[in-house]
UniProtKB/TrEMBL annotation:
Source organism per UniProt: Dentiscutata erythropus
InterPro entries: Kinase-like_dom_sf (IPR011009), Prot_kinase_dom (IPR000719), Ser-Thr/Tyr_kinase_cat_dom (IPR001245), Ser/Thr_Kinases-Pseudokinases (IPR051681), Tyr_kinase_cat_dom (IPR020635)
Gene3D superfamilies given in the database record: Transferase(Phosphotransferase) domain 1 (1.10.510.10)
Listed GO MF terms: ATP binding; protein serine/threonine kinase activity; protein tyrosine kinase activity
Span of domain Protein kinase: 1-130
Entry protein name: 16283_t:CDS:1
Domain of life of the organism encoding this protein: Eukaryota
Length: 130
């Protein structure tokens, strides 16, 4: 949550409004914590591209540029960027799910980070909460 608040100021990042406690489905007996996020009128990128198959290369490039700008300005290594974590609102990219992301301030040396994450000994690899 702290990390989400840190990147929340960029217009390419889905806004985080808070937490609520609710039943996730009618079959749940217990309450679960749920993130309250900004609404994205066109849903996830995968569905958006399927519904708009006649996109020009210019339109595709524009979406890719927005995505790159969002990641660059947020100073984030996302670590799980895929079409389900990219939302569309008013034809603009909104990046979501920063659950396993890291700030670039802690991850600037790509070569050593890659070597660390793919170390031969699994015990020497960083844990998800590091």
């Amino acid at each position: 949550i702290k990390f989400q608040k840190k990147v929340d100021m960029d217009d390419k990042i889905i806004r985080f409004y808070g937490l609520t406690k609710t039943k996730v489905s009618v079959f749940d007996r217990n309450l679960s914590y749920v993130l309250v996020l900004e609404f994205a009128d066109s849903g996830i990128l995968r569905n958006y591209l399927q519904a708009n198959q006649n996109f020009s290369w210019f339109d595709k490039l524009h979406l890719a540029q927005q995505l790159a700008d969002g990641i660059m300005h947020a100073d984030v290594v996302h670590r799980d960027l895929n079409s389900s974590n990219i939302l569309i609102h008013k034809n603009n990219i909104k990046i979501s799910y920063f659950g396993i992301s890291r700030c670039l301030a802690y991850a600037t040396d790509t070569k050593s980070n890659t070597a660390e994450c793919w170390h031969d000994d699994p015990g020497k690899r960083p844990k998800i909460d590091q």
